[in-house]
Design brief:
The structure is a homodimer. By secondary structure, the first copy, chain A, is mainly α. Chain A has a domain of about 130 residues: Tetracycline Repressor, domain 2. Chain A has 9 helices and no strands. The longest helix of chain A has 28 residues. The first copy, chain A, binds a DNA duplex through helix 3.
DNA sequence: TTCACACTAGATCAATCGATCGATCTAGAG
DNA sequence: CTCTAGATCGATCGATTGATCTAGTGTGAA
């Protein structure tokens, strides 16, 4: 086996694109197999079932997102500087993880209870990261919200909505929208 | 016919609940028929096809939402007062239209081109309403964003995210979260 | 060489899908 | 009393679904 897990990776990559485009239920295992040129059996061999394939994609993406967000916001600096870095990094990463993010918020209701729980945990981890930073800001007193939790939800709303409406082919550049979104958040808290 | 369109309304109501719970693709026309106790044929008789049923629900809800938002924000007052009223009304209405709103943002990719376009138009109408108000605020000079469009997107992100995470059965009251969300938005702009 | 195992293909399964059919029922118009 | 339009029914269509089964591959260890 010169190229280990090549089929597995190809399946995951094709599935990512198809899930993002047509949704989980809207994509059949035959679509995925056909897109890779492999047979259906590979999906069941490598991922157990259709949901296993989705969860594998979600796991990889969310772990990477959380890790990179932690790294970026763990740099030295004032609480406000670190929080700003967190938001900016989140926006930038979401840009590269458009498809993954779309899957994330799309097909929750078609997952098994275990899959749903895993999905929820990934989202909660991101929320908690924001809550930590917001709590630090609140203790520093530079801030005018009462509940760090609600503030974290509001921020996630703005950030996640951004990857919903932002179109790279539009007239507004990513840097332009990203700066405006960041300022909205910084004023909001 | 003592009760005109009763079957039609019952179908739409059942479909609303099922679509919100399991998604459009995740709900079969058999599920809807079974939930109402009527036969499958009624759906095709009253709505043409499965998508027609969804679009009918979407149309009713979005027209009502837009109308009530216009009414609420057309009251006399300063631009800021009217804008605040708009946001508060939006939050309140979303609370009563939870299911409809969920459908709205869920299954876009499974619609026909015409259905997708209709869906997009409804969302654009809301966006434009916000842009009008934000433009008035910008001209009044009380505001620190550059693009009313981006600001409108940000606000919609916060409002729509609210109906995603807010749980009536949780410990936080609706009034509490609503106030906090509104303040976040008002500071953000 | 032999054996075990990871990997892959293709045929096939029962279940379910959206949609359509002709037939029947009901209510009101003329 | 007849005619018609709309509402509703159960049966059924072909297609597709996720999943499984069998039958091989090729590779590396013993």
């Amino acid at each position: 086996m010169a190229e280990p897990n090549r089929s597995k990776d190809r399946l995951a990559l094709s599935a990512l694109g198809l899930f993002a485009e047509r949704g989980f239920v809207g994509t059949s295992i035959r679509d995925i197999a056909k897109a890779t040129g492999l047979s259906i059996s590979n999906i069941y061999h490598h991922f157990g079932n259709k949901e296993g394939l989705l969860l594998a994609i979600l796991k990889t993406a969310s772990e990477r997102l959380l890790r990179e967000l932690r790294e970026a916001s763990d740099q030295p600096g004032t609480p406000m500087e670190r929080f700003k870095k967190l938001v900016q990094t989140h926006l930038q990463l979401s840009r590269g993880l458009r498809k993954e993010a779309k899957i994330f918020f799309l097909d929750e209701e078609h997952l098994s209870p275990e899959g749903y729980r895993a999905n929820l945990t990934y989202q909660r981890d991101i929320l908690d990261l924001y809550r930590e930073h917001l709590l630090a800001l609140q203790e520093a007193g530079e801030v005018n919200f009462k509940s760090p939790t609600i503030a974290a939800f509001n921020i996630l709303g703005v950030v996640n909505w951004h990857l919903r409406w932002y179109r790279p082919e539009g007239q507004m550049s990513f840097e332009e929208t990203s700066r405006e979104v960041t300022e909205f958040i910084l004023h909001g808290i």
